[in-house]
Design goal:
Strand order of the largest sheet: 2-5-4-3-1-6
Strand content: 25-35%
Largest sheet: 6 strands, mixed
Distance between the termini: 23 Å
Order of helices and strands: EHHEHEEEHEH
Number of strands: 6
Radius of gyration: 15 Å
Helix content: 10-25%
Shape: globular
Amino acid sequence: MNYWLMKSEPITYGIDHLFKEKQCIWDGVRNYQARNFLKMMQVGDLAFFYHSNTQPPGIVGLMRIIESNIDDPSQFDPDSRYYDPKSDPQNPRWQTVKVELAEIFNAMITLERLKQNFRDDQMMVIKKGNRLSITPVEQNIAETILSWRN
DNA sequence: GCCAACGTTGGC
DNA sequence: GCCAACGTTGGC
């Protein structure tokens, strides 16, 4: 079982949206490195839900992967902002996962707190200039973060 | 709103 | 295959 961190701007899709929907397909990732991490995810993996472009940014909850290696439907939808006309339906370019909400944390675990407790070679999201929306989280780091809940 | 840090695109 | 130009992300 592996841990991950998945970013989203709450103005677009935040943890409140997921709370209402219970589960969702994590669509719209259009970066190959991030997609490669998505393809590595397995059912049962856990992912931190991270709010980006907020004041402050940080982790707001936990999700569980409930379906892996899905072809992202939005790549074939001309009305979607994530439409990719270059993606061949016979050989889709973008894969993702389906997640369910596991937990909403009582208080956000801020980026600042992560930076205070970990080095930037321990956790990708705290590296300066990092823009990857999907990143792995080492187990011991994940367990430490989970111990901060409530 | 600024801008650093990337990733992507496309001409050559 | 190089790299300049451009677009995007996301903290601040």
